[in-house]
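Practice problem 4.
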């Protein structure tokens, strides 16, 4: 996505470095990185510190369980255990659910594992359910042939993914947003979605047009 957008951005030499999830924001804060990408969703806390791009994909949260699990919906996670990482929007999602269901909260095991390992652990029965983004979940389940079921969640949460920029990278953010709009309009964004995400996960055009 960033590579495709960079074709429409002049004056920047963009290089890539793979890093752990919790190092992304440390890197932005310390000016090691100017741009970050990792299925990043919108939160008010992040928006107060970093600059968001226009949405690059529609990627709603889903509930994942074993196929024989008694968990059929979000209403059934009380008293059950999940895995997550610190500082994620999905951990906050469960925390917010627990606040509304304090009589029977769900337990979060902060494992620090990536989502592929978490899905493998879920498949082997180490915990009861996982909440994560739909694109990653469907891709990994297919690749690993896992015996898991995916349940769509009806939530009011923003379902989009974004690229984020350090607070002093406003010019680059603006150029990137223009490039994404071009990729959307010329059909490249949909081609990238189908090729790398396994389907058309385009954000709503209105969301791209209205974002600054």
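Answer key:
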């Amino acid at each position: 996505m960033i590579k495709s957008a960079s074709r429409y951005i002049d004056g920047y030499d963009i290089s890539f470095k793979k890093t752990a999830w919790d190092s992304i924001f440390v890197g932005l804060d310390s000016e090691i990185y100017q741009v970050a990408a990792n299925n990043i969703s919108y939160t008010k806390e992040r928006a107060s510190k970093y600059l968001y791009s226009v949405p690059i994909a529609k990627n709603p949260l889903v509930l994942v369980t074993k196929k024989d699990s008694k968990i059929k919906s979000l209403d059934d996670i009380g008293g059950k255990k999940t895995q997550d990482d610190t500082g994620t929007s999905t951990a906050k999602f469960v925390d917010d659910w627990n606040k509304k269901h304090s009589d029977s909260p769900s337990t979060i095991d902060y494992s620090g594992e990536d989502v592929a390992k978490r899905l493998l652990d879920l498949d082997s029965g180490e915990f009861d359910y996982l909440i994560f983004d739909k694109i990653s979940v469907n891709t990994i389940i297919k690749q690993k042939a896992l015996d898991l079921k995916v349940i769509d969640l009806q939530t009011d949460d923003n379902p989009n993914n974004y690229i984020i920029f350090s607070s002093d990278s406003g010019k680059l953010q603006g150029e990137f947003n223009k490039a994404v709009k071009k990729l959307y309009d010329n059909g490249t964004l949909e081609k990238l979605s189908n090729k790398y995400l396994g389907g058309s996960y385009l954000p709503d055009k209105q969301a791209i047009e209205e974002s600054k």
